[in-house]
Amino acid sequence: MKEISVDLIQPFMLATVETFQKMLGTNPIAQQYTLNKGTGIAKDISGVIGLTGDLLGSVSLSFPEETALKALTAFIGVPISTLDQDSMDAVGELVNIIAGYAKKFIEDYSTVISLPTVIKGKGLEVKEPADVFSFRIPFKSALGDFDLSVGLKKV
């Protein structure tokens, strides 16, 4: 197993901050990241996008329901009061934008991003395989707290 440098996580953090600033009108503040060792994350809705190629893993953006509704209202520009199919698609689009933005900063690696998957459920957990280094980066924002998780391994 090849270890992942924290330097590979920074582009995803930057992409998250800039996406939220430009598209949601809020300035999220990254908190101290932690290395997830099979613990997963527990939130109400997560947008997950896979990475393949020289880097293998996934990126997920996870929200408590209240934060998701506020973030999606800011993103779409109309009030969102329930997590229906359209709002879930918007969560997928947010993680897609973040992964696509971050990809330009890791162009030394031939990496392909997948279509996003959105998972909804109270206290759900998204876990990476045991051999993938997964970092959880909590963010605080005026819209509420949310998590970015980046799990990668070099192949």
Provide a quick synopsis of the model.
By secondary structure, the chain is of the alpha+beta class.
| Shape category | globular
Number of domains: 1
> Structural class of the secondary structure composition?
alpha+beta
Number of helices: 3
CATH topology: the name is Chemotaxis protein chec
CA radius of gyration is 14 Å
Examine the secondary-structure arrangement and name the CATH architecture.
3-Layer(aba) Sandwich
CATH superfamily: CheC-like
Low-confidence spans: none
**In the CATH hierarchy, what is the class?**
Alpha Beta
Please give the number of β-strands. 8
N-to-C terminal Cα separation, in Å? 8 Å
The sequence of SSEs as H and E is HEEEEHHEEEE
Give the % helix. Answer: 25-40%
Give the assembly state of these chains. single chain
* Biggest β-sheet strands, sense, barrel: 8 strands, antiparallel
Q: How big a fraction of the residues is strand?
A: 35-45%
Give average pLDDT, whole number. 90
What would you say this structure looks like, in words?
α1 crosses α3. The mean pLDDT is 90. The radius of gyration is 14 Å and the shape is globular. The chain has helices spanning 10-24, 65-76, 85-103; strands at residues 29-30, 34-36, 42-53, 55-63, 111-113, 117-125, 133-140, 146-154. Helix content is 30%, strand content 35%. The protein has 155 residues and is α+β, with helices and mostly antiparallel strands. The protein has one domain (6-154): Chemotaxis protein chec.
